[in-house]
Structure formats: C-alpha cells, structure tokens
C-alpha cells in the first residue's frame, strides 16, 4: 500500500528543515518497509503570494484532498505579506476544510535540552495537550454595533456543540487509555464561564463512563497554567477547548526548552480528509538562510505522521534516534540553539543514520 504525502515547505526555515524531515521519513520508511510517495507544492508560501496574489491556488482542495497526509514546514514572511493574510490564507484553510478537529502536541523534556524549569530532567515532563481545533471560543458569531460612538457594543459568542466536543473528548480518552498512566486532565473554568464550561464538564464525565480504566481530574484554567510550571510531572493527557488549548499548547512545549524541537499534528482522526503535521515554530526570519535551524521539530512531526498512518514502531524509531543523538551531545553535530556548532544538515544526517540502525 502506497501512502501519498504532500510536502509544503512554505517560508524561511521551513524550506531548510523540510529536507531533513523528509530524510528522516525516508530512513524510517526503508527500515520498516513502508511505501511513501511524495509530491512537493510551492503554494502555501509568501513567495507564491507575491507571484499570484493569493496563498493557495483556487483548486487546492481538489488537489490535496486525496493525499494521506500533509507535511508542512512553516508559513509567514511579514516583510512580504502580513501575518494574518499568510496564516488565514493557508494553514487555517487546511485546518477548517479538512476538518482537522484535534490539535495534538506532545510536551516532552528531551535529553541534552535544558528546561527553563529548575531541576527538571528527562522523564519528568512527558504529556500531550489535546486541543479542540474547530469551534469553541474561536467562532465567527458576533459583531459590532454603534461603531465609533459612545454606544459601541462588541460581542463574540462561544460556540460548543455536542458533536464537536464529544469527538475531541473521545480522541483524548482513547489516547489516555493507550498510555501507561491512563490519566486525563480536563481544562475548565466552570466557576467563571458558568454556561458553556459546566456543560463541558458534563460531557467530560459522560464520555468517561465509556473509559472505566482512565482516571480523570479537572482544573480551572488559571490554576492549571500554574500547575504546568510547578508540577509538569502530574500530567499525562490534557484536553481543552480551543482557546484554553491554544494557551496550554504553547506553555507545555515552552516548559521543555527550545521551541525548535516541538512538533504538532492537526488531525482528522476519522480519515475523511488528510491530517497535517508541522513543527510548532514559525519561519524564523532572524536565522533563515543560514542553515542553522534545528530540524527536530520537523523530524518529530514526521514521526507523528507515521504513527497516524498506522506505523507506531517507525514513529518511535525516529523519536529514539533523535533522543540518542541529543543524549550523545556532540557539539559539532548539534545546532546552535541547543549549544552546538553544527548545521541543520549535520543534525538531520546524524538522526537519519540512527534511524537506519
Ligand atoms: P518563530 O517560531 O519563527 O521564531 C521565534 C524565535 O525562535 C526566533 O528567534 C527563531 O530564530 C527561533 N526559532 C524558531 N524555530 C527555530 C528552530 N527550528 N531552530 C532554532 N531556532 C528557532 O516565531 P516568530 O518570529 O514569531 O514568527 C516568524 C514568522 O513565522 C511569522 O510570519 C509568523 O506568523 C510565522 N509563524 C508561523 C507558524 C506556523 O507556520 N505554524 C507558527 C508561528 C509563527
Ligand atoms: Mg498558539
């Protein structure tokens, strides 16, 4: 069975880390006899916008919908295109039209990387944030009235549906069930947001009836952010609405050191449409063009892609490979953001060699 992967390097360091992401995929595909086929697209980048006046061609949906996964680098080059245009014109289109209703981010402290939290070592931080990615607080329901007058009014409604909330909760419970600790934490705020959030809590409890082995706790979002910093070892799988998940999915990886290594997946778990895998970082104009960007965020996203396609051992082999290279800590191989003197390519090659075995 051939899996078709759409490669969209995008902008800046996206174009530099993508070849290393593909190198790692190739190494894992060879070792585990997985048949991957790639097609690279220039759209979804600011250079494409400068030439065509839009981020994506009109027929992007038709062209991409048949792929098994999308592998994205990074999008954004504010000198050429304002960020809200480049982001809304590309990534957010994919997330919406391909109904990628789960945003999944591992938060894991890796060997050889210094956590900004004192005295934390690998093993202390190892959890997932599961963010609802399509509705909730990020709705288009609302508007402005009496603009520019003393009576100016602005309203934006939170929209939560049973369909939308239950499906992300099911994903989070399934993930918790599959992990040794089998623990799910729900982000809530049912004291202050007294209509939607008590209902969210009810849905969490109702879904939990299907998962007797999973232990569940919940925290209000304010104290939960404090616990991320004070007790990151408490967490296993954390599930949250769109806004709360947005905050937690930046805070979690931040607790593990450099954002250059953090991966993410935008998942359509039922497989109706392709899912999208991308590093958490952006296009990093400040270091772009110098060949020194850390490729691990892209490579780890590739590991998540293989897991999603049904090859967990291949994904694990990639993770083990970069953990081993980081643990060795050879200065000439590592990129400058993690204390090395090497390049994107030296680190990418070292990891690919490890994957090969
Ligand atoms: P950024 O993530 O591009 O960079 C933030 C800082 O982290 C910079 O100092 C950069 O050098 C460093 N950094 C990022 N990735 C790195 C890596 N792999 N290795 C070493 N250092 C790394 O965020 P920023 O500067 O706020 O945004 C730049 C552009 O990227 C903007 O146009 C923004 O809209 C876009 N962006 C795109 C994202 C995406 O494609 N999903 C996510 C975040 C930002
Ligand atoms: Mg964010």
Automatic annotation (TrEMBL):
SMART domains: Iso_dh. Its EC number is 1.1.1.83. The keyword Manganese applies. SUPFAM superfamilies: Isocitrate/Isopropylmalate dehydrogenase-like (SSF53659). GO terms for molecular function: D-malate dehydrogenase (decarboxylating) (NAD+) activity; lyase activity; magnesium ion binding; NAD binding. It comes from the Bacteria. Residues 4-351 form the Isopropylmalate dehydrogenase-like domain. Its cofactor is Mg(2+); Mn(2+). It catalyses: (R)-malate + NAD(+) = pyruvate + CO2 + NADH. Belongs to the isocitrate and isopropylmalate dehydrogenases family. This is D-malate dehydrogenase (decarboxylating).
């Amino acid at each position: 069975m051939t899996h078709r992967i759409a490669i969209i390097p995008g902008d800046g360091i996206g174009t530099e880390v993508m070849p290393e992401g593909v190198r790692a995929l190739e190494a894992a595909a060879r070792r585990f006899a997985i048949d991957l086929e790639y097609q690279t697209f220039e759209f979804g980048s600011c250079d494409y916008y400068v030439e065509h006046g839009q981020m994506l061609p009109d027929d992007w949906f038709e062209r991409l919908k048949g792929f098994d996964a999308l592998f994205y680098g990074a999008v954004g080059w504010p000198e050429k295109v304002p960020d809200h245009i480049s982001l809304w014109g590309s990534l957010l289109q994919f997330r919406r039209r391909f109904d990628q209703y789960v945003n999944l981010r591992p938060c894991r402290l890796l060997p050889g990387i210094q956590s900004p939290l004192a005295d934390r070592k690998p093993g202390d931080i190892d959890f997932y944030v599961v963010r609802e990615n399509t509705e909730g607080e990020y709705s288009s329901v609302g508007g402005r009235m009496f603009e520019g007058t003393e009576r100016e009014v602005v309203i934006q409604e939170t929209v939560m549906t049973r369909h939308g909330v239950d499906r992300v909760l099911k994903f989070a419970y399934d993930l918790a069930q599959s992990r040794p600790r089998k623990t799910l934490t729900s982000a809530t705020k049912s004291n202050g947001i007294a209509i939607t959030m008590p209902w969210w809590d009810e849905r969490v409890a109702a879904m939990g009836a299907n998962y007797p082995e999973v232990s569940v706790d919940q925290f209000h979002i304010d104290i939960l952010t404090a616990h991320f910093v004070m007790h990151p070892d408490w967490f296993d799988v954390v599930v949250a609405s769109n806004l709360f998940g947005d905050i937690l999915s930046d805070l979690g990886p931040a607790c593990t050191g450099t954002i250059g290594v953090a991966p993410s997946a935008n998942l359509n778990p039922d497989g109706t449409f392709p899912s999208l895998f991308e590093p958490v970082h952006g296009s990093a104009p400040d270091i772009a063009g110098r060949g020194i960007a850390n490729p691990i965020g892209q490579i780890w996203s590739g590991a998540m892609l293989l897991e999603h396609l049904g090859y967990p051992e291949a994904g694990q082999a990639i993770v083990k490979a970069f953990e081993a290279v980081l643990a060795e800590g050879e200065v000439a191989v590592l990129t400058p953001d993690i204390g090395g003197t090497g390049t994107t390519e030296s680190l990418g090659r070292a990891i690919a060699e490890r994957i090969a075995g």
